[in-house]
Amino acid sequence: MTPQMPAWLDPSPWLDGRVATPADVERALTCDEPGPRELAALLSPAAHPFMEVMAQSARALTRRHFGRTISMYAPLYLANYCTNGCAYCGFASDRVQPRCRLELPEVEEELATLKEMGFEEVLLLTGERTSHAGFDYLLECVSLAAQRFHAVGVEVFPMTTREYALLAEAGCSGVTIYQETYDPRRYDRLHRWGPKKDYLDRLDAPARAMEAGMRTVGLGVLLGLSDPAFDAVCLLRHAAHLRRDHWKSGITLSFPRLRPQAGNFAATFPVDEAWLARLVFAVRIVLPDVPLLLSTRERPEFRDGMAGLGISKMSAGSRTSVGGYGVAEPATEGQFEVGDKRSVPDVCAMLRSRGLEPVFKNWDSVFRGGEACGHG
Ligand code: SF4
Description:
Layout: H1 22-30, H2 36-42, H3 51-66, E1 69-77, H4 104-116, E2 121-125, H5 135-148, E3 151-155, H6 161-169, E4 174-176, H7 184-190, H8 199-211, E5 216-220, H9 228-245, E6 250-254, H10 273-286, E7 292-294, H11 300-306, E8 313-315, H12 344-353, E9 357-359
Parallel strand pairs: 1-2, 1-8, 1-9, 2-3, 3-4, 4-5, 5-6, 6-7, 7-8
Bound molecules: iron/sulfur cluster.
């Protein structure tokens, strides 16, 4: 049965078939409190001629709220076991590839490598909750990471409020959970089996994480799965809903695009770089103070151009396979192909050449409640 979209999320009042005009776009660009209507106008065909104005506006807003800094983080894949059938993912349970998890000494090694690379913020990733990589395993990994890193986030499976609270106690400060697409029909078709098929449970997970005291929650959609304008307006609605009810926590937004992966799923709604750039500009204009992330999925030239132009946080030197930072050849394939394979020093040099400063630490573990990490 197709899941029902809750009324608070429904974007149809702003995507009602009415064609936005250049006047709507101009209004959106000068509006004091832009919202879903303005976002829809900025993403409409009428906004094509306004790309340069939007880029300048996005740059000015990013500079006002984030200065010339770009926060840096690194993903760390802990395990690639998964029971879900996400049609677009190289880790889906029907993809034939070696499965493994990092044992705790290996997690420590990978963390040490990331530390040597200069990172102070790490994002731990797994597939769906399994007996190989379930909550207890994740809790241990978070504790290990929190001893070394000032900011620890997880991008894993949806949890209960109680579980999120236990993770927060262990030192986790951020939860990233993408809805992938907000279109219930597409969601149902793309998530062929497994617990992730539960659209509403996933939709509610960020609220549970915030309720449990997480400092930040990361939202996003996987661009290419569904109508990107529809998903963008829903993303804004979701963020607004969470901000209203959980104002003590922060939101971050990411813009992952489908990348080649095992299974060769092709994007049904391909999003090119020009469209992605416009999306980032438009979101920056309607959410001027929210950190916007761009990962190494994108190619170097595009990332270089977007740094500071809406984007305020980036990963670098990323590996998307389990054990990818170790010296030995990783035993698994990556979740997706990395587009920007440059080293951390190369990405930092690029940022500095553009007058931007990479920032590795903008949060101190001492704020976790007196329990400072070993590198304080
Ligand atoms: S997207 Fe996540 S949940 Fe879906 S198959 Fe891949 S690893 Fe599993």
